[in-house]
Amino acid sequence: MKNPQITIFAKQAGVEITPYTKRSDNRPDEGRIALRFFRLESGGTSLRFIAEPAEAFDLGCRMGKVHSEGGKESLSHRFEANGHEVLSKLTIERYTRNGKHGFALGLQRGSEEINVPTTPERFLHAAEFLRHLSLREAWVEEAERGVQGMENSRE
Asked: How many angstroms separate the CA atoms of 78 and 91, rounded?
């Protein structure tokens, strides 16, 4: 089976964008999009940001805006882990250093932060890929029906 995926590498880090399935007890599986940020050094840290399809679409649109207008945009998630609230902040930006423009995606969680600088073309490709996955992963597993003869019913 072929799995859609793109990976952007920088000198010391990278980000991988892939489809993801959210599995919950007593709830149907749902489509999501995973952005996994990682360090390239041996034993390096890896942080994952899971976006709902609508969030991935919004992020792709924001990346297009940042590419054309500059600036910085972010998307935050709060969740409980080990009895503590955890905040993850995904940031996209266009920056200027030494008279040159650059683009970056970054993820911050607690004291951990991974930034992945990239080219304008790879930045836009990631934006388009996020928009594509937002449509492809907009699904919910249909629950088994308990009544015979209702297999094709949409009621």
From this structure: 15
Q: CATH number of the domain that 25 lies in?
A: 3.30.2450
pTM, to two decimals: 0.87
Q: What's the domain count of the chain?
A: 1
Does residue 80 register a pLDDT over 90?
A: no
The residues near 47 (Cβ < 8 Å, ≥ 6 apart) are 36, 37, 38, 88, 107, 109, 112, 114
**From the CB of residue 19, how many other CB atoms can be counted at a distance below 10 Å?**
14
Can you give the residue range of the structural domain that contains 56? 6-136
- Render 42-99 in DSSP notation, one character per residue: TT--EEEEEE-HHHHHHHHHHHHHHHHH-EEEEEEEEEEETTEEEEEEEEEEEEEETT
pLDDT at 154: 45
What are the pLDDT digits (tens) for 2-61?
A: 899 999 999 999 999 999 999 988 899 999 999 999 999 888 889 999 999 999 999 999
